[in-house]
Amino acid sequence: MKEIVSTQDAPKPVGPYSQAVRLNGMVFLSGQIPLDPRTGELVTGSIQAQTERVLENLRGVLKGAGLTFEDVVKTTVFLKNIDDFSQMNEAYGRYFTINPPARSTVEVARLPRDVKVEIEAIAIERR
Questions:
Q1: At 55, which helix (H) or strand (E)?
Q2: Segment 87-94 long-range contacts (CB within 8 Å, at least 24 positions apart)
């Protein structure tokens, strides 16, 4: 049976979706953009600053599910501009330092609110 994960440590959904869904020991985290959950304001500026905010939002959802970045097995990174890859990767690497997850990174035509990056994740519950 699926369980909805909800937390105050990440932006509230702005549509008909959940921050994350737990099912059969797996947690599927919706894509996060660089929106500050406390202020509701977008983090603008560098791709590194936006990536850090996105990953902090994912950390909040993981925490709400009782998990950490070590439990993440797959991420998908959506970039507005693939030329930002190396700078995004530098920030991303500070969050996944040990046994990083599998990852796909793709350039997309446009992201919500014209942000530079969105990241989604899949995590597993360790027994």
A1: helix 47-64
A2: 87/46, 87/47, 87/48, 87/51, 88/47, 88/48, 88/51, 88/117, 90/48, 91/47, 91/48, 91/51, 91/52, 91/55, 92/51, 92/55, 92/119
Tens place of pLDDT per residue across the chain (127 aa): 999 999 999 999 989 999 999 999 999 999 999 999 999 999 999 999 999 999 999 999 999 999 999 999 999 999 999 999 999 999 999 999 999 999 999 999 999 999 999 999 999 998 6
Phi, psi of 45 (to 5 degrees): 105, -145
Comparing CA positions, the residue from 76, 107, 109 lying closest to residue 92 is 76
Domains and CATH numbers, the chain: 3-124 (3.30.1330.40)
Written as one letter, the residue type at 17 is: Y
Query: Is this model's pTM higher than 0.70 or not?
Result: yes
Burial group, residue 78, by CB count within 10 angstroms (0-12, 13-18, 19+): buried
For residues 24 and 2, give the distance between their C-alpha atoms in angstroms, rounded to a whole number: 8
